[in-house]
């Protein structure tokens, strides 16, 4: 089939790479405009754009699709059979949904109708789900509500972060998306309507990633893993902000919520129902480091009465 691929970040590039290796023809890509990154704030292409340019594929980078008659005209000229979508980052206007014969087909990293919305991987971990997966579905005018075309399931590891889980789902999901394109071309796809009821995963903000030490240890553990690596879990000590990596719950329950204890080779912090061991920590102005190494660099006075908030 003739495909126009829509996507922006690295997980989308993984799917595009799989489609480029398939029998389908990717005639163009839709992706977000170049973004400024780094200390120099220089412009960088999205991973999807960079991959498309490597393969000599036409790249379209509209700020928005709504009201853009030029992009709509170009898509109609390209006459795609389908538009596979992975984390594109732009809403698809209703008047563009009928351009491809087989529709716009989204690869979403959850088992729909669970965790519709912007952050399904983070939501699944934070919620304590044991199983998640990926779903391909035909985009309609709702939010991740279209007919399901394919699904795959996978377990969530007890120590897995959202970054690790997303990397796994991007790889297996790419195969699911390619298989869905094959089924659409062969006429063997069987669209299944979704129930109206579902759960939603809102867009993550840095405020969501602040650790609340008054929560149970299991909730804090899941929350930190859900926000690793981005936007990164964090906590305060006075006016200082510390970024945290994944923690390990312990059998101890001697510390008040947020109270820190410094052992020879560990740093423990209290929660609502038990102590947890810090893994890595990033003090203000420094790089992420092992929490025990950070503690060894503190004076005895600096360790007294440490409470994270």
Automatic annotation (TrEMBL):
Residues 2-177 form the Formyl transferase N-terminal domain. Attaches a formyl group to the free amino group of methionyl-tRNA(fMet). The formyl group appears to play a dual role in the initiator identity of N-formylmethionyl-tRNA by promoting its recognition by IF2 and preventing the misappropriation of this tRNA by the elongation apparatus. This is Methionyl-tRNA formyltransferase. Belongs to the Fmt family. Keywords: Protein biosynthesis, Transferase. HAMAP family: Formyl_trans. One of its GO terms (cellular component) is cytosol.
């Amino acid at each position: 089939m003739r495909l126009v691929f829509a996507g922006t970040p690295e997980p989308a590039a993984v799917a595009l790479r799989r489609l480029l290796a398939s029998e389908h023809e990717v005639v163009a890509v839709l992706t977000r405009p170049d973004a400024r990154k780094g200390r120099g704030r220089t412009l960088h292409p999205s991973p999807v754009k960079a991959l498309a340019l490597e393969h000599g594929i036409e790249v379209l980078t509209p700020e928005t699709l709504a009201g853009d008659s030029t992009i709509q005209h170009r898509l109609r000229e390209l006459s795609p059979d389908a538009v596979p979508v992975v984390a594109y980052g732009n809403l698809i206007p209703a008047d563009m949904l009928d351009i491809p014969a087989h529709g716009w087909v989204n690869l979403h990293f959850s088992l729909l109708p669970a965790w519709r919305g912007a952050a399904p991987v983070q939501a699944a971990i934070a919620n304590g789900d044991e199983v998640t997966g990926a779903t391909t579905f035909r985009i309609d005018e709702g939010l991740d509500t279209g007919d399901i075309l394919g699904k795959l399931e996978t377990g969530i590891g007890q120590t897995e972060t959202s970054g690790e889980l997303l990397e796994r789902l991007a790889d297996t999901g790419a195969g699911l998306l390619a298989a869905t394109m094959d089924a659409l071309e062969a006429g063997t796809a069987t669209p299944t309507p979704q129930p109206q009821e579902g759960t939603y995963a809102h867009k993550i903000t840095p405020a969501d990633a602040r650790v609340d030490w008054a929560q149970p240890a299991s909730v804090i553990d899941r929350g930190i893993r859900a926000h690793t690596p981005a936007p990164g879990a964090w906590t305060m000590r006075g006016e200082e902000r510390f970024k945290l990596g994944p923690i390990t719950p312990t059998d101890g329950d001697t510390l008040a919520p947020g109270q820190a204890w410094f052992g020879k080779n560990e740093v423990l912090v209290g929660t609502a129902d038990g102590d947890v061991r810090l893994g890595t920590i990033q003090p203000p102005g420094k790089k992420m480091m092992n929490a025990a190494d950070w503690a060894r660099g503190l004076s005895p006075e600096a360790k007294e009465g440490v409470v994270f908030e």
